[in-house]
Design a protein that fits this description.
The protein is α/β, with parallel strands linked by helices. The chain is built from 27 helices and 27 strands. Strand 21 and strand 22 form a beta hairpin. The protein is globular. The structure holds cytidine-5'-diphosphate and magnesium ion. Its EC number is 3.6.4.13.
Length: about 775
């Protein structure tokens, strides 16, 4: 019996739980949401309201003869749609109208570029069309790459639902450290990085019959490399089909790159956009966005649409989230008779950022019950990768966080930058996908013309390439300049990446991969982390280093809520190991393990359980890779001093020397650096003379994050290329060395010479 027949009148009981009466014996497939007018009959409201929410909590037998009451948890993440609902929503997508033309194109060509507005169904439909049409027969996989982990997972979930398949069976996904596929898998969503790593094992990607390179317009570093790799592969694999999908920007470039590959545009309609600019630049974009949101919410009818706010990252997003809640509470408490359309219970605020990939809630994609407004605060992931229906208002502060590499000083940093015009257009497009919408740009109109680039600079031209160079070398591409890049990276970036790899021992002076380099490439980690793991294994502490590396691969483990910051800081101190943040992380993990990986224990000590849990999973994955490559897992026992030395082996180039009481200078670049206030070393009486750091945070001050005190002799051992000993002081009688002064070596000369050799190796 379908849900349509099974319903009597649904109602919401006082604790927000929906209850409905269904006929006895009817199978509950979907719960229809009430329309505004609750007095209408359920059949009618069912049609008005559309999609379903909730899963069945419990079924109560009613004493009267046939109906039973079914309780639905309206807050549950789980949705159940009828097959008919799903089929209908698929058919409404613009790509459906173009289905037969698309399939013909795919049959006739080996490579093609498909363009469509976001939300037209490229990501969710293309792979399904190919599968249904049997183009990829013979047991070969259909692969679909995504630049972002969060998108890969969420799209796989959606497609599994549409195909009525269990996730991990016919439809699966793979991201770094996580593989949800099986032998049965036919459609595989993955990050572009995963496809690259698969190419290391099988250069010809034999198991794929068809590969969709999705979101190519994003020009992520890995997508660019995948495209170059496929270009080399196409002539060897005549049976392989490659489909590149792109939003409207950049598309022609891909066609040209693949020798005028056919372009196909999915027809779709766009609606007029209304743009409202700030009169002058805003001082605090979080504040401005919050004001704007609250003002929209109180002055418009709720059913006029949902609100999407773009923010740069987790911190901004959380601040915005809290501030909106606070401000709304204020507005409604100050004047309860305030004449607004809406009240505080009528909003639900969602956040999307890519901290932990599993975190994204399915509910973000559902429409809320009538009379409730959705406010979504997201990073630029919501620009094109994820489409949320029902957005009618967009708030765009005009910024995004970008990874920027300064090859001259060899520093990578995450920096908040103005977005490009193409991104601003995409953002405003999110408001007018299904009807006209409004975008509030928190910057003056003149900014668009005067201060914004037309397009974002592709990642390959603004990021550190050490990882990529190591990967290409492992793929046997010795002459990296010969690799077909859509846009070549700056020569200087190449050189400094080669230099970095040479410095940590992955390449020899002629640019060839060393055996250490080969071993490093087996790990899906940045080269310096692979190195410390390998060195630790040789020095009897890989058990501990495995934990440290895993902990460095997850977002912040310490939880610091605004209202309990002091308490949280005090709790954090419990775990401090005086000379090292790396060892502090090890300490946290070890204690968590002693407490049986308990969730409650984490809450008690202000630790993010999910981050720790993730670290544990990553640790398991890395452990498997170690076993496979016969890398010994050995524990140092209670003596942790050797661990610090091993950390130094991978990070000697990221070193700072104390200057004055609490300041440091970067040993290589001479730049002033401060310890981050969250460091275990911060506020210590006697600060160590030399530290290495894991990351630099560039704000008004340059902060070293996650630092470890190191011995100057270790620096000489692992950094002899960079550093010289300037002065050694002895205590006369015993001849014991008491003071060593390390300085940046005769660097320019050394680098020049090396540069010369590396350049030669590129030229050859
Ligand atoms: O890739 P493209 O931007 O062309 O569209 P898509 O991501 O395939 O989205 C097509 C439709 O599926 C949109 O209406 C999305 O809202 C919906 N969708 C969803 O409901 N849940 C997801 N996890 C992903 C997409
Ligand atoms: Mg898409």
């Amino acid at each position: 019996q379908s849900s349509r027949d099974g319903f009597t009148s649904p109602f919401k009981n006082p604790d927000g739980v929906f209850a409905i009466n269904a006929r006895k014996g009817s199978k509950l497939v979907a719960i229809r949401r009430l329309a505004r007018d609750q007095s209408k009959s359920s059949r009618q409201t069912a049609e008005v309201a559309g999609t379903a929410v909730g899963n069945v909590l419990g079924i109560k037998e009613d004493k009267t003869e046939n109906p039973i009451a079914v309780e639905i948890d309206a807050k549950s993440d789980k949705i159940e749609l009828t097959r008919a609902d799903i089929e209908l929503s698929r058919r409404k997508l613009p790509s459906y109208a173009a289905k037969s033309a698309l399939l013909q194109l795919i049959r006739d060509n080996q490579i093609m570029v498909i363009i469509g507005e976001t939300g037209s169904g490229k990501t969710t439909q293309l792979a399904q069309y190919i599968y249904e049409a049997g183009i990829c027969a013979g047991g070969q996989l259909i692969g679909c790459t995504q630049p972002r982990r969060v998108a890969a997972i969420s799209v796989a979930k959606r497609v599994a639902l549409e195909m009525d398949a269990e996730l991990g069976q016919e439809v699966g996904y793979a991201i770094r450290f996580e593989d949800e596929t099986s032998e049965k898998t036919k459609i595989k969503f993955m990050t572009d990085g995963i496809l690259l790593r698969e190419a290391l094992l099988d250069e010809t990607l034999e198991k794929y019959g068809c590969i969709v390179i999705d979101e190519a317009h994003e020009r992520s570093l890995n997508t660019d490399i995948v495209l170059g790799m496929l270009k080399r592969l196409l002539s060897r694999r005549r049976d392989l089909k490659v489909i590149i999908t792109s939003a409207t920007m950049n598309a022609a470039k891909f066609s040209k790159f693949f020798g005028s590959a056919p372009l196909f545009t999915i027809p779709g309609r766009t609606y007029p956009k209304k743009l409202i600019y700030s009169k002058s630049p805003v001082e605090d974009y979080v504040e401005a966005a919050v004001m704007q949101t609250v003002s929209i919410h109180v002055s418009t009818e709720i059913d006029s649409g949902d609100i999407l706010i773009f923010m740069t990252g987790q911190e901004d997003i959380e601040a915005t989230f809290d501030a909106i809640k606070e401000r709304l509470a204020e507005v409604y408490s100050r004047n309860s008779s305030i004449s607004t359309f809406n009240d505080i219970d009528n909003v639900e605020i969602f956040t999307i950022y890519s901290a932990l990939p599993g975190d994204i809630q399915n509910r973000i994609f559902e429409s809320l019950p009538s009379g409730k407004r959705k406010i979504v605060i997201a990073t630029n992931i919501a620009e094109t990768s994820l489409t949320i229906d029902g957005i009618r208002y967009v708030i765009d502060p005009g910024y995004a966080k970008m990874k920027i590499y300064n090859s001259r000083i060899g520093l990578d940093s995450l920096t908040v930058c103005p977005i490009a015009r193409a991104n601003a257009d995409q953002r405003s497009g999110r408001a007018s996908r299904t009807s006209p919408g409004t975008t509030y740009r928190l910057y003056p109109e003149s900014t668009v013309e005067e201060d914004m680039f037309a397009q974002t600079i592709p990642e390959i031209q603004r990021t550190n390439l050490s990882n990529t160079v190591l990967l290409l070398k492992t793929l046997g591409i010795d002459d990296i300049m010969e690799f077909p890049f859509i846009d070549a990276p700056p020569l200087q970036t190449f050189l400094s990446s080669l230099y970095e790899l040479f410095f940590i021992g992955a390449l020899d002076a002629s640019g060839k991969l060393t055996s250490l380099g080969v071993a490093m490439s087996r790990f899906p980690l940045q080269p310096s982390l692979s190195k410390i793991l390998l060195i630790a294994s040789q020095n009897g502490c890989s058990e501990e280093m495995l934990t440290i590396v895993s902990m460095l691969s997850v977002p912040q483990v310490f939880y610091r809520p605004k209202e309990r910051m002091r308490e949280s800081d005090l709790s954090r101190r419990r775990f401090f190991v005086a000379e090292s943040d790396h060892l502090t992380l090890l300490n946290v993990y070890s204690q968590w393990k002693c407490n049986k990986y308990s969730h409650r224990w984490c809450n008690k000590y202000f630790l993010h359980y999910k981050s720790l849990q993730r670290a544990r999973e990553i640790r398991e994955q890395l452990k498997k890779i170690m076993a496979k490559n016969r890398i010994k897992l050995v524990s140092a026992g209670p003596d942790w001093s050797i661990i610090r030395k091993c950390i130094c082996s991978g990070f000697a180039q990221q070193c700072a020397k104390r200057s004055g009481l609490s300041k440091y200078v970067h040993l290589k670049t001479g730049m002033d650096i401060q310890l981050h206030p969250t460091s275990a070393l911060y506020g210590m009486g006697d600060l160590p003379s030399y530290i290495i750091y894991h990351e630099l945070l560039m704000t008004k001050t340059e902060y070293a994050c996650c630092v470890t005190a190191v011995d100057p002799f270790w620096l000489m051992e692992y950094g002899a290329l960079l550093y010289d000993i300037k002065r050694v002081a002895y205590v006369n009688d015993s001849q014991r060395i008491t003071q060593v002064d390390v300085q940046s070596g005769n660097l320019p000369q050394k680098e020049d010479e090396l540069e010369h050799r590396l350049k030669r190796c590129i030229a050859e």
